[in-house]
Design brief:
The protein is of the alpha+beta class. The protein is built from 22 helices and 18 strands.
Length: 551
């Protein structure tokens, strides 16, 4: 029939006919007895109606409104449909396209998220509202009772409160939502959970007398707690940070070199969590997230994942590829002193680092001289490298924890701490990079202590991240703030380069995001060669300066 139609003089093109057929298929899905109900269906219906009436002109909206109200479960006004149409045109609608992923089951991992269409880098994979959000709605009386319970259970009170808030959100949810939350549960026996999580399981008894827990069995509440501990994501609720579980976003398995990243701060999808591709994802490929700090070396990652999530990671980054953030200075290229430490001044540009290749023997290979080393060849002052990493990582965690409650630090002491990390490990090691980021954070708020040092540190960090094939805008969240300091120092070209680097990744948050606006304002200052930022901008920056350094 199509061939005969095309053979008729003056007939429409094949593309026009096929588009009309596709449009008819989309509209045939909906009727008065089977109307469009969900957000995705509403967008699909509206998109089909827009195509159907595209040639009618302004009068099309009378027909679109009439047809929409006939085929949708809920009537919408002309202004509402026009606003929705603009979102569809700009791609801002969360359900403007068909899903590009599906939830499937794998025997080894349980539920996984699989790409059903090619996904380019930096594209939003999923934007969805949380199933439940645990935030500050627990009564003061319950909080007071929780303090002695935490003391007796040797549990962290802040973490315990977050678990209780999450349980309350579940207890107040409808049955359909509860069923979706419980699908996130992976059937591990509770005794396999890490020791740090065992205490929280007993919270089911603590809340059993609460009205909102009356309809939830003890076994069901145990599963809810496990879902909170293993599958929940941070979620921004106004100015507060809560925890949330999602139908799709809480499914991805771990990879220490993930192909996706999560955020709840995308301005294009307010009130939603977003899963965004870090790299191109092929059809049939698993969508993965990282469950740990991106700068952790392999030895610490494996230990952290086992202790926190009760599994041993077998991703490619842990079993095949070189350990990019576990590299140390090559004993031949960068000789150590008699104390086993590196010289006080080693430039970031100095080459000669050895990387661990788990499938090779000997496993350590220098990227400059090509020399190989065994595990036994690597020690610092007689201490095995893995033990040294663990000790230095714990020391830095203790410093950060101390400063979170008392944000004042002696700058000389901080520089000594920095030297105590990079001299055993080298400047490219992940723990050293964490300390360098921390140091940048302090210098951003106190640039009088050394803007030259700040610029040198950020140059080294950018070079290392690029060398490892990562995106500086993602890995180095201080880029924009460092650029602000350089604007004040009239180093406009360097500041512009950092703003551009930051925006290569920050675009995932949308044009309306404060992160993007900050970088764009900085670019405007560079274009004008104006070192003075406006007062509102300065006030916003002050909120980012977490530490008062004592020179």
């Amino acid at each position: 029939a199509t061939s005969r139609e095309l053979g008729r003089p003056g007939a429409a093109s094949a593309q026009t006919l096929l588009a009309a057929m596709s449009q008819a298929d989309a509209l045939s899905r909906f009727s008065a007895s089977s109307p469009a109900r969900t957000e995705a269906e509403i967008d699909e219906l509206l998109a089909a109606l827009l195509r159907q009436h595209a040639d009618v002109g302004e009068g099309k909206w009378v027909r679109i409104v009439e047809d929409f109200c006939r085929l949708a479960a809920e009537e919408k006004s002309k202004p509402w449909l026009q606003r929705r149409a603009k979102k569809l045109a700009s791609g801002d609608s969360a359900a403007a396209e068909r899903p590009v992923v599906s939830i499937e089951h794998m025997e080894k991992y349980g539920r996984v998220l699989i790409a059903t269409s090619p996904i380019p880098a930096l594209q939003v994979i999923v934007a969805e509202e949380p199933l439940i959000v645990g935030h500050a709605t627990v009564s003061d009386a319950l909080k007071e009772r929780l303090v002695p319970w935490c003391q007796s259970a040797n549990a962290d009170a802040t973490d315990a409160l977050k678990v209780v808030e999450f349980m309350k959100a579940y207890g107040e949810a409808d049955q359909s939502t509860r069923e979706k939350v419980l699908k996130c549960y992976h059937p591990e026996r509770f005794d396999k959970l890490p020791q740090s999580s065992q205490a929280f399981i007993r919270l089911r008894e603590f809340v059993s007398t609460e009205a909102w827990a009356s309809s939830v069995t003890g076994e069901e509440m145990e599963k809810v707690i496990v879902v909170k501990l293993m599958n929940a994501h941070p979620f921004s609720v106004k100015s507060a940070q809560a925890t949330a579980v999602f139908e799709h976003i809480s499914v991805p398995t771990n990879s220490c070199s993930p192909n996706a990243v999560y955020t709840s701060q995308c301005s294009r999808h307010p009130g939603r969590g977003c899963l965004i591709a870090r790299t191109p994802i092929a059809v049939g490929e698993q969508v993965t997230l990282s469950y740990c700090d991106p700068f952790m070396p392999r030895s610490l990652r494996l230990s952290h994942l086992q202790q926190t999530y009760a599994f041993r990671c077998d991703c490619a980054a842990c079993t095949v590829g070189p350990d990019t953030y576990g590299c140390v200075a090559c004993p031949k290229c960068i000789p150590r002193g008699e104390d086993g430490l590196l010289p006080m001044e080693v430039p970031h540009s100095k080459s000669g680092y050895i990387y661990h290749h788990p499938q090779d023997e000997p496993p350590w290979l220098c990227d400059a001289c090509g020399e190989r080393f065994r595990d036994d060849d690597l020690s610092v002052g007689g201490m095995p490298l893995a033990d040294m990493e663990r000790m230095l990582f714990q020391e830095h965690q203790m410093l950060e924890a101390h400063l979170s409650s008392n944000p004042r630090i002696d700058f000389d002491e901080l520089m000594c701490h920095y030297a105590s990390v990079y001299r055993p490990l080298g400047l490219r090691h992940g723990i050293t990079m964490r300390v360098q980021l921390f140091l940048c954070d302090v210098l951003v708020g106190n640039p009088e202590l050394g803007s030259d040092l700040l610029e040198s540190l950020i140059d080294g960090l950018v070079a290392t991240v690029r060398r490892n094939g990562e995106q500086p805008g993602e890995m180095l969240p201080v880029l924009t703030q460092v650029a602000h300091v350089l604007v004040r120092k009239k180093r406009f070209d360097k500041a512009k380069a950092l703003y551009d680097l930051a925006l290569e990744f920050l675009t995932i948050y949308g044009e309306g995001s404060p992160k993007v606006k900050d970088a764009q304002r900085g670019l405007q200052a560079c274009a004008k060669k104006d070192p003075k930022l406006d007062e509102a901008f300065e006030a916003a920056l002050c909120d980012l300066w977490r530490f008062a350094a004592i020179g």
